Amino acid sequence: MAFDYSLELDMPLEVVGELKRKLTSAIRKALRRAVAWLRTESLKRLSQELGVKKTALKNRFRIRVSRKGHSARLWVGILPISAVKIGAARQQEGGVKVRDYFFRGAFLETVYGEFAIWKRLGASRHPLKKQTIDFSSEAERIIRQLEGQLNRKFAQWIREALQ
């Protein structure tokens, strides 16, 4: 048994060119929309999961669309974030509390020109270590979870843009 899949177009070249322009435009619009949605949704979910304000993470999610609009990237800065940036830090007996995090033996101070939560590494005054929160594994997991939804939404947005 053989199948023949051939397509003969009885359309003028102008119509084919117009269809190509519309399809390219629809893909560009859907691509920009998809990357913006991924940024917004991953930022929202990550801030909820970490118990951190979105503003503390917002500058770590950047969108880059190519000049021709054929590709788009979402860059996520996953280096640990300074603990003092996630909320109001309070010095307590035995350490510093920020949101749901407690840093035992830490203190709030401006050191090396930077206001942060610091902890001594030994018995002497120095060296000090700035206290940070690592969120790289959570960010990666959340973005992987959103991939399936992103593909479905991308197809839906292309269809909407073509109509």
TrEMBL record:
Pfam families: Minor_tail_Z. It comes from the Bacteria. This is Phage tail protein. It comes from Marinomonas mediterranea (strain ATCC 700492 / JCM 21426 / NBRC 103028 / MMB-1).
